[in-house]
Amino acid sequence: MKKLLAMTAVAALTMSVNVSAQEGEAVYNKACQVCHSMGVAGAPKAHDAAAWEPRLAKGIDTLLNSVKSGLNAMPPGGMCTDCTDDDYKNAIEFMSK
């Protein structure tokens, strides 16, 4: 029984360690493109480097906090219900280039 419990614990730990961030484009396609493709309600358009430049100048942590807390018309978390901080960062990086 102890061996089974130990194997289960190792398997659970291995699975949690192997969970990786979603690709920025995937996050954009499932959650961000609704607003960021057309600049809805002042959202900076994806791949408009000039629109993203002043936002990026504030730092990635500031942008991350804005996404998580919501900003202007963007609801907290944007439209992504399962995103991690790394997922959001990857989406920001994808959209800002």
TrEMBL record:
SUPFAM superfamilies per UniProt: Cytochrome c (SSF46626)
Signal sequence range: 1-21
Cytochrome c domain span: 19-97
One Pfam assignment: Cytochrome_CBB3
Domain of life: Bacteria
PROSITE patterns: CYTC
Entry-linked InterPro entries: Cyt_c-like_dom (IPR009056), Cyt_c-like_dom_sf (IPR036909), Cyt_CIE (IPR002323)
Record flagged with keyword Transport: yes
UniProt protein name: Sulfite reductase
Lineage summary: Bacteria, Pseudomonadati, Pseudomonadota, Gammaproteobacteria, Alteromonadales
